[in-house]
Amino acid sequence: MTNVSGPPIDAQITRLTREALRLARFTIAYNIAEGVIAVSAGLVAGRNPGRPAAVRTPAPRCG
Predict the structure, then answer these.
(1) In angstroms, how far is CA 33 from the centroid of its own chain?
(2) Could you tell me the superkingdom of the organism this chain comes from (predicted)?
(3) Per-position pLDDT tens, the chain of length 63
(4) Among 6, 16, 24, 51, who pairs with 55 as Cys (CB 3.0-4.6 Å)?
């Protein structure tokens, strides 16, 4: 006696495959966006290497 509940195995495999592909596409898109943001931030930081004097932190005094 077997108790089978839920959709057939082929339907489950199809559904899980679609979900896996969707997650893979999301991961790739997220990584590309993160890379673009990181490169852009690096370029912006490279164009303005110095900070204004009002923002600079004074060096600690010894003694």
Answers:
(1) 7
(2) Bacteria
(3) 566 666 688 999 999 999 999 999 999 999 999 999 999 988 887 776 555 555 566 677 776
(4) 51
